[in-house]
Every structure is written in structure tokens, then in C-alpha cells.
Amino acid sequence: MDALRIEALVKDYGPVRALRGIDLHVRPGEIFGFLGPNGAGKSTAIRIIVDVIRATSGRVEVFGVDAQRCSVEARRRMGYLPSDPAFPAGMTAHEVFDYFSAIRGETPDAAYLRGLVERLRLDTSRKVGALSRGNRQKVGLVLALMHRAPLIILDEPTTGLDPLIQEEVEVILREVAAEGRTVFFSSHILAEVESVCSRAAIVRDGMIVDVFDLAEQRRLAPRIVEVEFAAPPPAEAFASLPSGVRLTRREGVRVAFETGDGIDGLVKEIARFEVADLSVRQPSLEELFIGYYRGEEQA
Amino acid sequence: MSRPVFLNTLRGLRWHVFWFGVGLGAYAAMIVLLFPSVEQFMADAQYPEEILKFFGAAGSLSDPRVFIQVEYLSFAPIILMMYGVLAGTGLMAGDEGRRTLEPLMAQPISRSTIFVSRVAGLFAGLAGIYLLNLAGWLTTAPFIDLGEVGTLDLLAVTAASLPVTAAFTGLAILVAAISPARGVAGGIVSGLVVISYLIASFAQTVEAIAWMRWLSPYYYSNSHGLLTEGVVWWQQGLLIALALLAFGLAWLAFRGREIEAGVWQPRALVRGWRDVAAR
Fold first, then answer.
1. Scanning every residue of chain A, which has its alpha carbon at the shortest distance from the alpha carbon of B5?
2. Three-state SS for A228?
């Protein structure tokens, strides 16, 4: 059974179609990235999952439970961090945790809750109305995580957090997945998704344009070979390259190639000239998928 | 009903309740304490008949029943209705504007439970105002000669404002549930309160528009004759029916509302109805 299953999800705001038929399956125990530029429809889809807004058509299931018809049962299986969360201003963070626990009718594991608070360096004695954006985000993160719900839905969870805390959040999310729980992680930052997710979907203009396994994607991805020659190679050099090799950049002494299985031929081709420096690396997720962000077909 | 949501609603309204209650209590006490000083003056005073009619004076203001009717029931219902509008529009739309509704709705709690708990909190607040108001009467009336006006009359005069307050509170929640923001809903329903008050008052004065009083919910609160002519039960019943209708529609609209959409949502009523039918 999928942790989260979305089928043909459509959402119209008047004449504007915000979601144009999203299909998605998230498996239990994975950290699934929901990636896309601002305005792509990520938050709209998430808010339908949580039943804060209603779909025009389509279906959402959380562990087999219809998230629209049986929304209370579905939400019992969820912990949720909204984008830019806010809480009753007169409460301290501690009171917020007590309040929402009382509503859920569940008492969180005190040691786990204390651990989360300490690791995120959150002062729970201050009124949430006086907290900065980053600290409110921490309150929201603790709230989403503290009941150990089987599905954690996070909408841009690291916004406003400093880099050290962002790193700690990633560690916590890996621990959540290691416990067999599922994380659905929305972000517009590719590097963040690359760092923490096992699979990801790219959403653009209200549609899923690709769903991919990050480890598999990296394994299959072409290598980028960047060479600095002692002197600029002649103009006719690299005019005909071995099969599976592509010239991607040429600026004076610096030349870059992309290759999948043609690395042997490329090395021999490069060796015809004096090499000052050479590096071989895998492209980042950003390099692989920036085309989707720009609305182009993947190269 | 959710006890934490109910208590949190009450907590959010506590200062409203305190100040509205203390204000009305002080106002009631002032009316009682003022009566002996103005009794003789009122007997001699020659007010224009239209002014007396506007404020619903069915007789001499030296009669304590008329005096309390005019002084208290001309203003207290307006103040209570303003509480209803403030609290009613703030109940859900206020939280939505502060973005605190979404984390609440993400919990395993139904929209109906949230609605019922919030409305119960609002009415508990209204009961608090009523009691503080009553305290104003009861701490002063035993020491002043109010003629035929007894404790039960004072209880009735205070309670008479509750059905009309409930009707406008329900309307406030309903309008807030289909409007883009709390401010819009507050403006509309406050305007309706004022229009309703003015229609009821002018219709008493101007013969040509006397029929218009039937269009004003405020008129049905019997504010112009409660102590002198008694409670008109069908009118109070009509207000309670109006209130129930408004709360019922508000419940449907809240069930179908798209949170933080920032647009008019009349279709929320249809979505809410379908939602109820589907479940």
C-alpha cells in the first residue's frame, strides 16, 4: 500500500487551472521530494492532501484512506508543516505543543519531543507571536514531527532556518525514514532535495513532468569532464569526437565535455594536447534538471 | 465538541468578554443610579414626540419601565450585536487571516467539530457578558426604588437582546465564511446592524415608512415595549429561528470553504452541502 497516492488531481481557481491532473505514488519509508519553482502548484497539491482546500476532481489516498471523504482519518496518519506557519500568538511554543496534542488526543513521547526541541535549538518558553520566521518554522517542524505520524508532509521546511539547523533537519528526516515512516518534502531548492530525498517528482505549471530515483539518476547520469590545456587547442581540434562524447563548452584553454560510456575515447582525444589540469565529476541535480525549471525538454 | 478548541476560543475572546461585560454592567448600574435624580426632571420635561418615538418611549420617561427601555434597550442591543459581529467574523475568518487556522485544520479534527467548539466558545463568552451585565443591575437595583420593575424584569430586559445578537452573530459567521477576508465581512454585517437599527427607529417615527419595521431584525427584539407591553414571543422565536438558519448556513459554508483562498466563495455553501451529503 502506498503511503500517499494521488490520482488525476485537478484544481481550478475560477478560470485558472492550478493543477492539471497530477498522478503520484509515494512508497512507505521513503523521503520523497516534491520539487518545482514557486507557483508550480506544490502548495496547492499539499493543501488538497491535508483537505484545507478541495480538489476540483481527482483522488488522494493516505495509506489507503480517502483524504477527502475520510479526511479526519487521513490526517490522523499525518504530521504537517504548512508553508510559513503561524500559531496562536498568545501561546508559548510549549503551550502550542500541548494545545495541538490535546486536539489530537495523543500525548507525544516526552523524550522524543525534548530531543527535537534541543536539536532545533528552540526556546519553548517564548510566546510564538514574538518569534522570528525561523523560530516559528522550528515550532512547525516540531509540531509536524512530535506525534511520530506515519506520513510527514513538509512544505518548504527549511525556509528561514540557518545552515546548521537545516543540516540537523536533514539528519532528523533521515532518522524518520529509517524508522519506516514516510516524508513528503516540498521544496524549490534542488540541492536540498538532492541531499535528503531518495525519489523526487518535478512539478511545473500544475503538472508532474518527471518522477525519478535520485541514486539511479546519478548512476546513469553522464560525467562532466573539464580540461584546462597548457595552450588553447587548435580550432579544428575536437571537431569529431568519439561516440558518446559531447563538447559542451570551449573558452580558450578551458574545454568541457559530457560523456556516458565514451570516457576511454575521450581521454585519448584529450591526450593529443598538453593538459594542465583535469577534473571528472557527476552533474548536480541542478544541472540535470534546470531545463525543467526553464520549461525546456531535458537534454 | 473539542474541549481544547472551545477553551482556546474562550481564551481568545476573554478581553472582549471582560470589557463588553464590564461596560454593559457599568451602563446598567448607571441607568439605575441615575433614575432617582432624573425622575422628577423627566416628569416635567417636554421632549418632541418624534424623538420619544425614535427611542421607543411608550409613555413618560419618569416611569422606570419606560426609562429603562429607552436608556438600556436603545443602546445595549447595538453593543451586544457589535460583540457578535466582532467575535463572529473573528471566529474563523480572523484565524484564517492570521494563518493560524491551517495548522488547526491539519489535525485529525473535523470542520464540524471546529465549528461547533468555536461557536460554543463564542456563546460562553456571550453568557459571560450577560452575567457581568446582570451584575450591574443586581448590585444597584436593590438600593433604588424602581417602582414595578423587579429582578425578573431586569433579567428579561437583558435576555431580550440575546436572540437578536445571536441572529446577527450567525449572520456574521455566515458572511465571513463566504467572503474573502474578515474585514470585508465585518464591514458588511456592521453596516446591516446599523441599517437595521435605523430602520426600526425611523419606522417608529415616520408613518409613511412604518411598514419597514418588519424588515428590521432589530425591531423583533421588542426593545420598544418589552417592559411596558411584555415579551412578544413569536418575534423572539422568529429571531431564534433566523439565528438557527444563519448558523446552519454558516456551518455548511465553513465545511465547504477553501482556506486562505482570498476570494468570495458563495459556492462554499454548495460544496458544504455536497460534503455533508457525501459523508
1. A103
2. strand
Look at residue A299 in the predicted model and tell me its pLDDT.
39
Q: Which long-range contacts (CB under 8 A, 24 or more apart) does A61-65 make?
A: A61/A2, A61/A4, A61/A5, A61/A6, A62/A3, A62/A4, A62/A151, A63/A1, A63/A2, A63/A3, A63/A28, A63/A150, A63/A151, A64/A1, A64/A2
C-alpha span between A17 and A10 (Å, rounded): 8
Give the phi and the psi of residue B21 in degrees, each rounded to 5: -65, -50
Cβ-based contacts of A14 with chain B (< 8 Å): 263
Interface contact A143-B279, CB threshold 8 A:
no
The domain of B188 spans 3-278
Q: Are A106 and A117 in contact (CB under 8 A)?
A: no
Interface contact B50, partner A, CB < 8 A: no
**B8: chain A residues, CB-CB within 8 Å:** 88, 99
Please choose, from the candidates A53, A111, A107, the residue with its C-alpha nearest in 3D space to the C-alpha of residue A82.
A53
**In this structure, are residues B183 and B96 in contact, taking their beta carbons and an 8 Å threshold?**
no
All domains in chain A, ordered by first residue: 4-218 (3.40.50.300), 222-281 (3.30.70.1560)
Say yes or no for a CB contact (<8 Å) between A14 and B107. Answer: no
Q: What is the mean pLDDT of chain A?
A: 89
- A161 SS3 class: coil
CB atoms near residue A38 (< 10 Å): 8
**Element containing residue B117 per DSSP (H, E):** helix B111-138
Does B104 contact A at CB distance below 8 Å?
yes
pLDDT by residue (tens digit) across A109-134?
A: 999 999 999 999 999 999 999 999 99
Per-residue pLDDT of chain B (279 residues; tens, 9 = 90+): 999 999 999 999 999 999 999 999 999 999 999 888 877 776 666 666 666 666 665 667 778 888 888 888 888 888 899 999 999 998 888 888 889 999 999 999 999 999 999 999 999 999 999 999 999 999 998 888 888 888 888 888 888 889 999 999 999 999 999 998 888 999 999 999 999 988 888 887 788 888 888 888 888 887 677 888 888 899 999 999 999 999 999 999 999 999 888 889 999 999 999 888 887
The residue count for chain A? 299
* C-alpha–C-alpha distance, residues A284 and B58, integer Å: 85
Q: Is the Cβ of B109 closer than 8 Å to some Cβ of chain A?
A: yes
For residue A53, give the nearest of B11, B110, B259 by CB distance: B259
Q: What is the largest distance, in Å, between two alpha-carbon atoms of chain B?
A: 68
The ipTM assigned to this model is 0.84
Does the CB of B208 have a partner CB in chain A at under 8 Å?
Answer: no
Cross-strand bridge partners of residue A202: A35, A210
As a whole number of Å, the end-to-end CA separation of chain B is 18
How many domains are contained in chain B?
1
d(CA B126, CA B142): 25
Residue B230 distance to chain A (closest CA, Å): 45
pLDDT, residue A298, reads 44
Which of B100, B109, B259 shows the shortest C-beta gap to A103?
B109
Out of A80, A86, A140, the one facing B98 most closely (by C-beta) is A86
Helix (H, G, I), strand (E, B) or coil at B265: coil
Inspect the interface and report whether the beta carbons of B107 and A75 lie closer than 8 Å. Answer: yes
